[in-house]
Amino acid sequence: MASADRTFDMIVIGSGMGGLTVASLMSQLGHKRVLVLEQHFMPGGFTHSFARPQKRLWDVGLHYVGEMAPGTMGRQLFDLITHRKVEWNKMPSPFEKFVYPDFTFDVPDDPILFQQALIERFPQERTAIEQYFKDVLRVADWYRTNMLMQSAPALIRIPAQLAKYGAKNIALSTTAGYLDHHFRDQKLKAVLASQWTDYGLPPAESAFAIHALIVAHYVNGAYYPAGGATSISKSILPLVEANGGQFIVNHTVTEIIVRNGRAVGVKAVTGKGQQRTEKEFFAPVIVSDAGAYNTFNRLLPENVPIPFRHQLEQIAAGHGFLTVYLGLKEDPSKFGFHGENHWIFPGYDHDALFKHRNEVLEGKPAYCYLSFPSLKDPQASSHTAEIVTLLDYAEVAKWKDYPWRRRGEDYQILKDRIAQSLIAFVNERYPVFKDLVDYYEVATPITFEKFSGHVRGTIYGIPSTPERFRLSWLKVATPIKNLYLTGMDVAGLGILGALMGGVATAARLLGSLGVMQILLATKKSS
User: Fold this and answer.
1) What is the pLDDT of residue 152?
2) Could you tell me the pTM of the whole model?
């Protein structure tokens, strides 16, 4: 492609779920020729998979997705952007197990059964439990309304937001604040907060808004895409290309070109060392799926006035993640695993456990999430597992400038120690587990930073604290004309959250009736 090619109607920076959604919707509904630039050598962001010998396949970031039952809005939107090419496999019930020292709580895929199970175990808290489920759904509804209405006409937006205003105070309290105010039993509070790693913040730091959104997202169970997460990007690429669009990988966007206050294109580099070259691409609309921090503080030139740049620098960074990808000798279902997730905690105070997150480096993990991708995917041809926990970026930052897979023996020794300690941690709860493992590979925060561009490996973008939801500038439209944000920072977390960010951006770009146009299209696609 020539460096000054202006034949595209839109450029999307990044091919994560938000960028994929915008590209698909604007290609299909807006009839736009969309160029998607991706720094990785594979498109998809956290929706891509990687393979190793013996046909072992792991997803980089997708572990499970809620709201994918036929007929739900989430499923209808996915069917629209993929032309129904992704098959969603329902996980078993219980689909989650919250594992504590003296009991395991099984989470069913039905909100009524979930509530009943909690009341049976904690009967003295019945009234508070019933109120909790009402508040979760009310706050999740508030969250979704505020997100979608940023792209709706004022005549619709203002009444809708006013109707949901009563949930705002609860939404902007902390998760710990809500739980401490409504419940007395420490074990019950622990159970209710067990999914906190799904939003990357312990109860004392997270907004109840994000907690409620995640709980509501999974209240009817969870699904997994047949063939793994890569089936998502594979289904969207042909739709974009069919309308004259294009995906280009191995191109790292380094600058958004701004002229006379308008975004008009991007600069991108490709290649390595002396073979590294810079290209320019131009389009009348630029959409960034690179996250708010990267967009405003890294990609826009310093002379472009952004009033909240300093505030972005001051916002506390989220927390880095670490994943151990495991190959297994045998089918784990022989030993009682059925595809459900396991959240393993050695205590009941999540905030206290969180403070010990880096002790995994010393062989003492504080908690972990255990998952079996091969049991969720009917197309899997080998057996795999994953262990996820948190680790501060600072603990591995000294290796960040070394080439991938050539970061030295000391880094490999560290990763081996982490993997062995997490395998042993799981084995304490499930004694058969260690003997099942015959391969492992570790991704640290610097791995996620390198391949996804997420600052310091904080894969959830701007942390979901109460303060985050008070940021009036964190939205689709930016102070720069023709420059828009998409993805998790303008909506919610995870795969569906990033998709909804893409929906909000596309709705804005499609015009005043964009929301209605997308909703009507979902009905036709179902």
Assistant:
1) 56
2) 0.93
Helix, strand, coil % (nearest 5) of the chain?
45, 20, 35
Query: CA 488, CA 17: separation in Å to the nearest integer?
Result: 9
Q: Distance between CA atoms of 291 and 296, rounded to whole angstroms?
A: 9
CA–chain centroid gap for 38, Å, is 17
The values of phi and psi at residue 323, to 5°, are -130, 135
| Residue 493 · residue 198 · CB < 8 Å | yes
**Integer angstrom CA distances of residue 501 from 110, 179, 464:** 27, 28, 15
Q: Are 411 and 419 in contact (CB under 8 A)?
A: no
What one-character DSSP code corresponds to residue 58? E
HSE on the CB side for 65, CA within 13 Å? Answer: 31
* Nearest-angstrom CA–CA distance, 501 and 499: 5
Q: Reduced to 3 states, what is the DSSP secondary structure of residue 137?
A: helix
Q: Which residue has the higher pLDDT, 162 or 408?
A: 408
Q: Does the N-terminal peptide bond of residue 94 adopt cis geometry, omega within 30 degrees of 0?
A: yes
Instruction: Tell me the domain boundaries of the chain.
Output: 10-88+226-315+461-525
Q: How confident is the model at residue 5 (pLDDT cuts 50, 70, 90)?
A: low
pLDDT tens across 359-392, in order?
Answer: 999 999 999 999 999 999 999 999 999 999 999 9
Residue of 443, 457, 449 whose CA lies nearest to 39: 449
- The phi, psi pair for 218, rounded to 5°, reads -105, 10
- At residue 297, the 3 state secondary structure works out as helix
Q: Which amino acid is at 420?
A: Q
- For the domain spanning 10-88+226-315+461-525, the CATH number is 3.50.50.60
Q: Cα–Cα distance between 277 and 286 in angstroms, integer? A: 21
Q: Could you say which DSSP state residue 516 is in?
A: H
Q: What was the pLDDT predicted at 2?
A: 38
3-state secondary structure of 256: strand
| Burial class (CB within 10 angstroms; exposed 0-12, middle 13-18, buried 19+) of 81 | buried
Residue 108 has pLDDT above 70, yes or no: yes
Q: Residue 206, Cα to own-chain centre: how many angstroms?
A: 16
Bridge pairing between strands 321-328 and 437-443? antiparallel
- Which is it for the CA torsion 145, 150, 151, 152, positive or negative? positive
